Amino acid sequence: MKKIFLLLAVVAVALSGCNKVPISGRNQLNLVSDSEVLQSSLASYKEYMSKASKSTQTVKSEQVTRVGKKIAAATENYLKSNGMADQVQNFAWEFNLVKDSEINAFCMPGGKIVVYEGIMNLVSSDDELAVVLGHEVAHAVAKHSNERLSQQKALQYGGAILGAITQGSSQTTQTIASQVFGLGANYGVMLPFSRKHETEADNIGLVLMTMAGYNPDCALTFWQKMSANGSNKLEILSTHPSDATRIANLQNQIPKVKQQFGAYIKASTPAASTTKTTSTKKSSKKSSKKK
């Protein structure tokens, strides 16, 4: 049994990787090529979009595209300015709003981002939408899909080694060892890495949205609304950090991001203010007619 846990420890150390994630600087494992991941993800994306129904909510669809393009432009500028211009060629950005009431959004490698109509019900401004899109773009920039595939490969290698270790033992011993390895890998390695990816995407997303000119303070208001619509699933059994953990992390990160990238922040006019302004103009027109 000690050999099994030693194996898990070796696999966990291997997953600390060697490549650097942009902005966060974290070391990551990458056993798969960009071309492999991009080819596979593009096929999956095309299949999904062929079955999905694009939203007919024109204003919200345009909002997703507008905010997404600004964040994508800021992302590419950052990569080019920091010696990573070669990574820009991997992105062919697409931002789609689809008909789905689920509160969700996802990102495919290469910059294919899909937002569900459901999450737009919680978005009250471009700044809050930038929180969502910044997070999704961050997944692509950090190559989290590459890393997840690399982790799976590493665990497969670990499973093969485990088989060699237990070879010659009774069938019962081999079965138990396999179960322990699977459980340990899932809760000890794979899920924590998923939570690590989500937290990293939150942090990088804050930087990207700020560099695009959006207010990172809105990340708190947005995730507080998400929390009100969230589940009570235990964090240890989830691929995402708990709402409380996520909000606490954002509260810690936002001042740092504002201090370093605050010059990019522009005064953003909330949707409510825009509505009031429009109403005022309409009232003025009516007053003029009366006169």
Structure report:
The chain is mostly helical and 291 residues long. The protein has one domain (36-267). It is 66% helix and 6% strand. It contains 11 helices and 5 strands. The protein has helices at 2-14, 34-51, 58-81, 85-88, 117-120, 126-141, 144-166, 171-211, 218-228, 243-261, 271-290; strands spanning 19-20, 27-28, 94-98, 105-108, 112-116. Strands 3-5-4 form a 3-stranded mixed beta sheet. A two-stranded antiparallel ribbon has the order 1-2. A hairpin with a 3-residue loop joins strand 4 (105-108) and strand 5. Helix 6 (126-141) crosses helix 8, helix 8 (171-211) runs parallel beside helix 10 (243-261) and helix 9 packs antiparallel against helix 10. The longest helix is centred in the middle third of the chain and has 41 residues, at 171-211. The chain is globular.
